[in-house]
Amino acid sequence: MRCPHCRHETRERARFCGACGASLESSVTCPRCAAINPRGQRFCDACGESLSSAGGASERDARAYTPRYLVERILTTRSALEGERKQVSVLFADVVDSMRLAERLGAEEWHRVLDRVFEILCAGIHRFEGTINQFTGDGVMALFGAPVAHEDHAQRACHAALSAMNELHAYAGALRARGLELSVRMGINSGEVVVGKIGDDLRMDYTAQGHCVGLAARMEQLAAPGTVLLTESTAQLVEGFFALADVGPRSMKGVSAEIRTFELRGIGPRRTRLDGSALRGLSRLIGRETELTWLDGILARSIASNGQVVGVIGEAGVGKSRLCLEFIQRCRARGVPVHEVHCPSHGATVPWLAIRELMRGYFGLAPDTSADSIRRTVEQQLLALDAGFASSVPLVLEILGIGDSGQRPERATPQAATFMRRFFRLQSMSRPGVLFLDDAHWIDRASDELVQVIAASVRGTQTLLLANFRPEYRPAWIGGSHYHQLALSPLGEEASRELLRDLLGSDGSLDELSARILERTGGSPFFTEEVVTALAASGSLLGERGAYRLATPIETLALPATVQALLTARIDRLGERAKDLLQVAAVIGKQFDEPVLREVSGLGDGQDFDAALGVLQDEEFFRLVTLSPKPEYTFKHPLVCEVAYLSQLGERRAQVHAAVATALEKLRSDRLGEYASLIAHHWEASGMRFEAARWKRRAALRVANIKVGVRGVGRRRAPPPENG
Length: 724
Description:
This protein folds into four domains: 67-270, Nucleotide cyclase, GGDEF domain (Alpha-Beta Plaits); 281-487, 3-Layer(aba) Sandwich (Rossmann fold), CATH 3.40.50; 493-552, no CATH class; 564-710, Arc Repressor Mutant, subunit A (Orthogonal Bundle). It has 25 helices and 20 strands. Helix 2 crosses helix 3 and helix 19 (576-588) packs across helix 22. Residues 53-59, 713-718 and 720-724 have low confidence and may be disordered.
């Protein structure tokens, strides 16, 4: 049986959950006096209160609280998500001392209060694209990273917790005026879960790995009223992005070692991954001098009153933001003003977020500037720029989030477009500048529409609009003679070696490790740095950056959680057929030919296979290696193959391995001896040991025959002895 609170699998006759300590007995809590009543009773046997509404909270339908677009996104992709491993963050929240509150308020009033609490919690969770997996009587359990995968699931969980806590504090203040004390506590943990069946009501069955869910539930129970507690695994993922207080190690039921815990206090100084790298010290930019020189040339053309637009495009981890950071630092060193806009991944659902940051930069507004100061500054600067902007002050205040109406449309209005066009040209006509849009693939829709207006307005100004984004983002503002695109490729082998030498050092104990890291990270600077950082954090490396030595032999290179979450999110953005084909290919191996992939996929000669294969090539998951005599492909990045393989459950991988072995026997019937070792590998991975042993024996015989043949040839070709 499963615990109804944390979903931990327990033995059949257990009375309490071994992971979170919750009672497993079938009972109903009276909403008035909090007495425990056997399930099936209509009235409380302690006070006579009706129990008809006591189970209401636990029976709430998550669909009623979930935005429609999120419901559709989950239900349309659930078949591709079921039976997969996911890196997630789990959030538990509940009302402190709810039984006492229920007794004091009575069933009807308590239901109204609890309903408002749920509304606030759900709004905060859904704002950051988390999903409510279940209501737990007086609280909720939410997941971030599954079923909707996000590379920043831990950050989203923390943002949601802070957002909900702020609203709950305000609601508690209103209740306090009536003499009521309402307080909520939360707990968050990050780790791996296996997604099971997803129901029509969005309820998700899953199996927790390493007490992931149970630890989140324990964090909630340990949290003081009005606080949020994080485990160390979550804290490591959000360090710098949030203000954390180390509250020390805690002992927990079901966990042998103490767990270090942290209290979530607020937003931290970091905005991007590079901010965290800067705290550790940015590594030297390697292998990008050609690109920097090219950008310098485009900037020179912009400053000569010939405004330009540049899009730097590349896969996640290839170094787009790092290249742009180096370039804008050079700009500032030359006295060229730079206005930066960073688009966080959760910002895509927040209208005007990117443009708001841009406007705050133009007006010189600090994060802690009061609303009254903002109003004065905006009005003064707009009127100084053009007296005709007097009528635009309310519009700008709305964009900045402090307007009187409190309404911000989700799309750019014609009035906003007209203002932005005029404002931007007045700001840019007489002085050079760079407008930098970082991670534009996460921009919100309203801001994206206004960036299109800006891009069309740069001609004749001294402004360079520089944006970086991933290939899946295709903005409407690209194109035209003033637009240039820089496709950023992974580092070459020599540059990758140089980067790794900078990170690791040149100690002789690192030679083999360096070769393995190079092969695995495929020229991605971010992946390379994350692997080295993870090795240092685990104690496998001793010393400091640039001067490490190997502490212990490393059998396997663990995949950092940051890299795994990033690649999982990218894979999950694929359609169902393309994703399934990618996973099949990952089981076949890093390089494969089209006939084998077609045979194993089960899609045959139909158009579905060709369409899915085309998508994977267009999205740069696969790269064509050779076209003749049969098309052969390879994974463009080895870590994508690894993540796609590991995300599948062992049972499914075994089935596909068996299908691969069968396909090879069929398609390589004329060369079975040559492929015997590979066929044996797939049979062994499928768990079919007898078949694996049979093919291993055949492979061994072939090797022996080859050796005998080589010796025979050697004897036949031996030169005759010289006559003497």
